[in-house]
Specification:
Low-confidence stretches: 474-478
Strand content: under 5%
Number of helices: 20
Number of strands: 0
Structural class: mainly alpha
Mean pLDDT: 84
Helix content: over 70%
Distance between the termini: 22 Å
Shape: globular
Radius of gyration: 22 Å
Length: about 475
Amino acid sequence: MDSRLKKNYVYNLLSQLLTIIIPVITTPYVSRVLGAQAIGDFGYTTGIVSYFCMVAMLGTANYAQREIARRHKSKNEVSCIFFEILSIRIVMILIVFVFYLVFINLPSWKHYRILFSMQVISFVAWGFDISWLFQGLEQFKVTALRNSIVKIISTVLILTLVKKESDLVLYTIIYCLSDLIGNITMWPSLKGKINRVRFSQLNLFRHSKGVWELFIPNIALQLYTVFDKTMLGSLVDTLQVGYYSQAEKIIKIILVAISSLFTVLLPRFSYLSDQHGDTEANSYFVSAIKYTYFMAVPLTIGCICVSDYFVPVFFGPGYDEVSPLMKILAILFIVMSIEKLLGTVLIAYSKQNIYTTSVVIASIVNVTLNLIFILVFQLDAIGVAIASVIAEFVAMLVQLFNLPTCFHKSNVLVQLKKYAIAGTGMAFALMIIKIVPMGLVGHLTISVLLGATVYFGLLIITKDDMVSNVMECITTKLRR
């Protein structure tokens, strides 16, 4: 991994770590102050708003990032792409906003109208989002540092202003405003990155095919990442949405740490695909797989083994149903991480049709299983969790079997062996420690420390590349 890629990864990782740390601080507080019902209402409404976001954004983010990465050596071309994509996004936001105003004023949404009204702020935030430009230019420092500051400020506001269940509206406003302010703060960094372009030079329609090809998978992704909560709220109740949202939140925020590398790799893979750098691309691919298993395997096993202690300590009373959900969704640490890596490769190599096929098939599987598990077996949130895991696994398999030929598919399975052995040792140690009588906090603390020690200890014994690299970096820093 070259120095520029390492720097981008570090900047992106630091930003994503805040995405993990902040919920660790706010979630226990908010879950106790607002309660499961209010959190369910918030998750239900934000899920619906995300559908409008999906339509407004089309497939512009990944598409623009890829195209800018391929043309980053030409400032004029980058400038044209920037203004063209920005124009497409603004036009779509205005159109979608009109439909949104009609939607929230329908009688059936009267109970949630205030929350929906507050989330109008999100439409403005989407218009100011230009993170895709800096990511395409492989300048992750801009988005990382500015968004980190905004996240810290929003955390302080939540902890100081949100005091009771009726503050759900205030919590929603802070949540939406943080996105808006974060996006606005990126605009001053545009100076020097793009040139002025005459309107006559712009051709919005040349992007229609590429944007549309990435829009279709976005629709499918929404069906099995957000539609879960919508179906739960509509077919069961928003209390079940509250339980599911909390379990999913823990999984998703930790997944961010793993997938932060893939965000950095998309522009690099895009550039290499254009330059026919297949050997270098495959090298990055293998390193990314090792990194994924190195992180995802212990997280999966740890989550399954300690969720019974973690949930009551972290969320407080009234969230017992979150624990079994976390155990099921923990499998996504491995499945979704590999899937995101494969999806990054497919998008970078203009294999959108394969990517689209995978998520469409997965969405059909997900919705079908949701209906069966909820209506027939009445499993509620448990059924939705199982359906999500199966759907993601299906998407992963479709993507794996259709990778570009320059990537060695066998690495996905071969590289797992060493980490699976270390993970098995970790699981055995955690099962033994359960026998020892201790309080919840004691069990949680000892389990985390013991699990990490056993896992990394076994990797050190087997001389794993990832651990060796980490140890080398630490040793180098200490010598300095």
